[in-house]
Amino acid sequence: MRLATIDQSREIEKITEKEYLLSAEVLMETAGSGAAREINQAYYPELTKGGVAVVCGPGNNGGDALVVARHLHSMGHRDLDVYFLAPAKKRSKLFKHQLKRAELMGLRLIDLEANPKKMAGLESASLIIDGVFGIGLKSKVQEPFETLIDSINRARTPVVSLDVPSGLDADRGLVLGSSVRAEMTVTFGLGKPGFFVHEGPLHVGRLRVLSIGFPFELLRRVAVTHFGFHERLARRYLPERKDTSNKSDHGHLLVVAGSKNSWGAGVLCANAAFRVGVGYVTFASFENPSTIVSEIPEVYTASLLDAKVLENPKLTAIALGPGLGVNSETKNLIVKIKKEKREKVVLDADAITVCAQEKLFPLPESWVLTPHAGELARMLNIDSREINNDRYHYALEASRIAGCHVLLKGYRSILAFGERTMVIQSGNAALAKAGTGDVLTGMIGGFLAQDLPTVQATATAAYLHGRMSDEWVRSGSDKRSLLASDIGAHLPQLMNRIASGTF
């Protein structure tokens, strides 16, 4: 899924008007009429059971909402009120045109600037359509708009937002003081990056992306930095497993993990690699890991004191870091693997800390780092709250510094590479528990070992990892109860459903 930032969205609109001769007014009419059809389909027959309140701000988003109101009225929804809060000096040209058209059609118009007490009427509506602010909002919502947004939220009735929930930063997913909590958002052209991170998903609700006539080749030319990874892509990239294949056809992963008091991290990592289909796993550590065989009898074990471990020509990928320890041995091992120009390597946990402390960056471009916000904060020497407030930016910054792919774990995980970012459209707070990151590292390593390219391996693993937590909650299990080992245990069923497209 291609996403468009605020600046890219404006550029797309500008070029569409200038080079393709589609005026902003035509685009607004297309957007409003399409949104009205979408709303009518999603909320019929509820629309016939009570009043519809269309709430407009003074800009072009308010203009979109006025078009929606006209078309819903034409569809027969006559119990409809248009509330607008639009100081004269702030009204856009298109808003003025649409307001006049609404007057000529005989719609009931309520000027909230002149009659602020009329705002109470929102509470009796059966559906509210939010067109207060669009994508352009960058500063904190001020009065009287803050009170209007709070009134929409207090109404406790379904809300449909147009293009973006009013008050939400469309790039970062931040609430700018106050934001509408929509049940559904109908956005125009392309989804926006902020819909999927921070508080965005809590305010967007169900997302509908509506084509309004932007040329396809223009979207591909301009929206080139932000992407979303979803189920259809995961299905496409799951490694094929032919009936005639054998274990040697599915790769050999070296899991470098664990230490005397931290074997569990490595066990979770190795088990997850097997679950995603890798043919062989060798578990190696600086200490003797043979005791873990009882936990995973399928693994080979080896000591890193034996230099021949890394010389095994059958190794196809390496997962390094969980429970390994922050020490000179870990540093020397990373340096050695780097000098050997190994291409398929994923680093997590202690390995990331060592790279940051020992200044081992840049790493080979094909490698993957999987930090959470705390680890990335130490790497960038900033507060983790700053990172969560602008996850796309800091994932990219980390990728530039590290010289490789970076998967910033969290809600939602962001994969950064080159000048591009990809948001993983799955996951929830059930994953906020020790060991889940070790499972993810094993899954990424397992897909790398099966010869998936770095982006595909990392994004597919992260999506399945997050989707497992989503399925856990949907099944009725409490999100506090998920164990890291549950992910590996239930992955087979999830992968089968995704591969077959049956849910």
Topology:
Elements: E1 2-3, H1 6-19, H2 24-43, E2 52-56, H3 60-74, E3 80-84, H4 93-104, E4 108-111, E5 127-131, H5 145-154, E6 159-162, E7 184-188, H6 200-204, E8 206-210, H7 216-222, E9 226-229, H8 231-237, E10 252-256, H9 263-275, E11 280-285, E12 300-303, H10 308-311, E13 317-320, H11 328-339, E14 345-347, H12 350-357, E15 368-369, H13 373-380, H14 384-389, H15 391-402, E16 405-408, E17 414-417, E18 420-424, H16 436-449, H17 454-474, H18 484-500
Parallel strand pairs: 2-3, 2-5, 3-4, 5-6, 6-7, 7-8, 9-18, 10-11, 10-13, 11-12, 13-14, 14-15, 15-16
Antiparallel strand pairs: 1-9, 16-17, 17-18
Helix pairs in contact: 2-3, 3-4, 8-17, 9-16, 9-18, 11-12, 16-17, 16-18, 17-18
Task: Give structural notes.
The protein is of the alpha/beta class and about 500 residues long. Helices cover about 40% and strands about 15% of the residues. It is built from 18 helices and 18 strands. The strands form two sheets. Strands 1-9-18-17-16-15-14-13-10-11-12 form an eleven-stranded mixed sheet. Strand 17 and strand 18 form a beta hairpin. The longest helix is centred in the C-terminal third of the chain and has 21 residues. The radius of gyration is 26 Å and the shape is elongated. The two termini are about 20 Å apart. The relative contact order is 0.10.
